[in-house]
Amino acid sequence: MKKIRLNHLMASDGKTVIIACDHAGFMGPAKGLEDPGILINVLVESGVDAILTTRGIVQRFGDRFGKMGVILRADGGSTIASPVNGTINPLLSIENACQIGVDAIICMGMIGFPEEPSSLQNLSAFAAESEHWGLPVIAEMLVKPRESNRATSEEIAFAMRIGVELGADLIKASYAGPIENYKMALRSCYRPVVVLGGEKVNNDQEMLQNVADALEAGASGVAIGRNVWQHTNPGGVSRALVELVHGSGSVEKALKEIG
User: Fold this and answer.
1) For the residues 1-5, what does the mean pLDDT come to?
2) Within a 13 Å sphere around the CA of 242, how many CA atoms are in the beta-carbon half?
3) 109 Cβ contact list (under 8 Å, min separation 6)
4) DSSP string for residues in 137-160
5) What is this structure's pTM?
6) What is the model's pLDDT at position 79?
7) Domain that holds residue 34
8) Over the stretch 212-240, which tens digit does the pLDDT of each residue have?
9) Which of 202, 250, 192 minimizes the C-alpha distance to 222?
10) In this structure, how many other beta carbons lie within 10 angstroms of the beta carbon of residue 41?
11) How many structural domains compose the chain?
C-alpha cells in the first residue's frame, strides 16, 4: 500500500516536484499564501506532482487538487508568535490522515535543536503506526550547523540517516555542495531524498542551479515553498522546476519558463 501511495507523489521517472504550502500553519497569512485557492489553481496548471499542506487547506480546497499527490503536515503545535519553543507535538494520527484521504504525512526531525527529542519521538511513533495503515511517512530532517551558518553535507548525511533509521519512507533535506560530497551523503541514506527550498532567495538561477546540482548528485526531486509562492511568477517557477526535474535538466531552459 505504501508503494502505491508513493506513486501518487512520484512521476513515472521516479522523481517529484512537491510544492510546500504548510507555512501558514505557523506563520499565519504569509505573503503569497493569503488566498490558497488561487495558488492551488496555479500549481495544478503548472503540472507539479504534489502539494505539501495543512489539514485546513485539504478540507477546504481538496476538490481542486486534480492529479496532485497530497502530503499532510502532521506535527507542530506552536506559531511564530509563541513565547515558548522546544517541543513539537503530533497534530493528528495516521488513522486520521487516512480518513482525510492524503497520500503521505510529513513530520520534522530537528537534529541539534531543542526540539530534537520531541521531533524524533514523533517520527518514530508515526513510522510505527504507519505500518498498520500503509501510509508513507516523510521526515523533514533539519540540522543545526556546528561551526557555520550552513550545514555541511556530512551533517546533512547524519540527519538523513537518523530519519531513515527511525522508519521514514522519504527524506526531505537541504542540499549542500559540492556535488561529489552530496553524492556521498545520499549514498548513506537508503531512502529517496527530496531537496527542500529553504529561505527565500532573490536569484532564480542560483535556486535552480542548486536543484540541478542536487539532482546530478542523485536526489529524487524537490520540495520547495517560499521560493515558489513568494515569487512574482509562482506558475513560472513551478513550470521551471518541472522542466528541470522531469524534462531537460537544463537550468537555461528552466529559466525560460519564468521569463
Assistant:
1) 91
2) 19
3) 116, 119, 120, 123, 139, 140, 141, 142, 159, 162, 163, 166, 168
4) EEEEEEE--SSSSS--HHHHHHHH
5) 0.96
6) 86
7) 2-258
8) 999 999 999 999 999 999 999 999 999 99
9) 192
10) 15
11) 1
> How far from chain centre, in Å, is Cα 123?
15
Q: What is the CATH number of the domain that holds 176?
A: 3.20.20.70
Is-contact 176 152, C-beta < 8 A? Answer: yes
Answer whether 114's CB lies under 8 Å from 146's CB: no
Q: Identify the three-state secondary structure at position 185.
A: helix
pLDDT at 206: 93
Take residue 5 and report the three cell numbers written for it. Answer: 501511495
CA atoms within 13 A on the CB side of 206: 8
Give the whole-number percent of the chain exceeding pLDDT 90: 88
Q: Which of 80-84, 114-118, 148-152 has the highest mean pLDDT?
A: 114-118
* C-alpha torsion angle, residues 116, 119, 125, 128 (rounded to 10): -80
User: Is 138's pLDDT higher than 90?
Assistant: yes
| Amino acid at residue number 106 | I
Judge whether 167 and 137 are in contact, CB under 8 Å: yes
- How confident is the model at residue 147, as a pLDDT? 84
- Reference 108, options 92, 126, 120; nearest CA is 120
242, 11 contact by CB (below 8 A) = no
Query: Mean pLDDT over residues 184-197, rounded?
Result: 96
Residues 258, 240: contact at Cβ < 8 Å? yes
